[in-house]
Design a protein that fits this description.
The chain has 12 helices and 16 strands. The chain folds into 2 domains: 187 residues, Rossmann fold (3-Layer(aba) Sandwich); 75 residues, protoporphyrinogen ix oxidase, domain 3, CATH 1.10.3110. With 369 residues, the protein is of the alpha/beta class. The protein starts with a strand and ends with a helix. It is globular and about 75 Å long. A 7-stranded mixed beta sheet has the order 7-6-12-13-14-11-15. The structure holds uridine-5'-diphosphate.
Length: 369
Amino acid sequence: MDRQYDYLIVGAGLYGAVCAYELTQAGKKCLVIDKRNHIGGNVYTEEVEGINVHKYGAHIFHTSDKAIWNYVNQFAEFNNYINAPVARYKNELYNLPFNMNTFTKLWPDVFTPQDAMNRIAEERKQGYVEEPKNLQEQAINLVGKTIYEKLIKGYTEKQWGKSCEELPAFIIKRLPVRFTFDNNYFNDRYQGIPVGGYTKMIEKMLVEADIKLNYDYFAHKDELKNIADKIIYTGAIDQYFDYVYGALEYRSIRLETETLDMPNYQGNAVVNYTAKDVPFTRIIEHKHFEFGQQPKTIISKEFSSTWQVGDEPYYPVNNDKNNALYQKYKALAEKELNVIFGGRLGEYKYYDMHNVIKAALDRVQELIK
Ligand code: UDP
């Protein structure tokens, strides 16, 4: 087939959609393909009972980068949702992230920030290490043993399917620890959910591109070979190279979604279940992302699972072993001169949405300069 496009973009998720928007704005012809029957990748939302359901798990947009915030606001109006998850440990409920609300509930004799700091300093002594090498050591250094055992250990081990002693320390650094009564899960300046769902936002990014859904790159590789000058590939990098060095490790999740005939199930968008014996990690109640007043509600229980070839990959497992394997794939990728690898799966990176957008914008800048 003759060249019909400047770019073939494999994957209609956030990275692919931002590239498509910027490239088409610059006058490039783009074809975006996706093996799924919808656009949006894992940020896809679908309206059911008037509620925008986050089909691949909760996505909460947050950033401190004003340029990125202005950028996304071109495509959607963002509401004032602030993520403030609640953790359930056995029959106890705690506010997250770890803040004065959490500390005063955990320890009835803690009233002031100084009380909380003293208490945590005591708790840290049981297990403090100079240079934390894994998540357990990092967590105990940060908040001490009680919080680690009630709110971190079970949740993390369920989410990653590994013991906290085998997990990298950086994962826990995502969570703020604060000595104020502030339940905002993120420290970022800007936060919100696109009114009307993420799918509409992605649609606007893709307006000038041609789109083919239900169209798997690997099943149509021959047809696609000469269709475009360059390929932007946002799928899994190991799959692209047919797993020649073996498969990278991912975590997958399974969402069990139900519609309930009641207006309000849990009173919050996110409730984490931090005890090991509850099989799911969290329950999402979708309407609360948009302050919904519908008569019914939709909840999703999130179960974490080991990924196997053929499953939906969600989280890259960025430990030393996988990062080293990724470097080998990256070296192969650098030799594919007309292919750009990007996004969570293309770069094997535990990426937040704002960072995906930033990476895509930077990439396009290089491409069109
Ligand atoms: N985490 C935790 N307890 C919680 C919530 C999070 O220990 O109740 C830790 C856990 O190690 C997890 C990490 O924080 O892997 C990141 O969790 P988050 O829910 O922010 O991840 P997401 O899936 O939203 O990217």
